[in-house]
Design a protein that fits this description.
- The chain is elongated.
- It contains no helices and 11 strands.
- The strands form 2 sheets. Strands 2, 4, 5, 6, 9, 10 and 11 form a 7-stranded mixed β-sheet that branches. The protein has a 4-stranded antiparallel β-sheet with strand order 1-3-8-7, with no helix packed on it.
- It is mainly beta and about 120 residues long.
């Protein structure tokens, strides 16, 4: 079984920064993509940033320049550095990963971490 656990969320003022972490654990053979999504109240879940094992990254257009995704493949960990936060960034942030186990490839999600930006 594979688990993704996010951490690093919290309450921050406008203009502040947070760094989220996502650690994958369990019977993992290989991880390819690790992504961050977010879901604000009353809105659909949206992609924030995506990464591959090889280092390729992709961002939502509206977040380019403020958010940075990075990986530590040896630790099966993804990070999301968020700078210059605004109240519009308030959401639950989720980690997602494509993981290979002995049973094959599956898509896994974490439980989410709350980010609240006060004005």
């Amino acid at each position: 079984q594979v688990q993704l656990v996010e951490s690093g969320g919290g309450l921050v003022q406008t203009g502040g920064s947070l760094r989220l972490s996502c650690v994958a654990s369990g019977s993992i053979f290989r991880i390819t993509k690790m992504d961050w999504y977010r879901q604000a109240p009353g809105k659909q879940r949206e992609l924030v940033a995506a990464s591959t094992t090889g280092g390729a990254t992709n961002y939502a257009d509206s977040l380019k320049g403020r958010f940075t995704i990075s990986r530590d493949n040896a630790k099966n960990t993804a990070y999301l550095q968020m700078n210059n936060l605004t109240p519009e960034d308030t959401a639950v942030y989720y980690c997602r990963a494509d993981v290979q186990t002995r049973l094959g490839w599956s898509n896994y999600w974490g439980q989410g971490t709350q980010v609240t930006v006060s004005s």
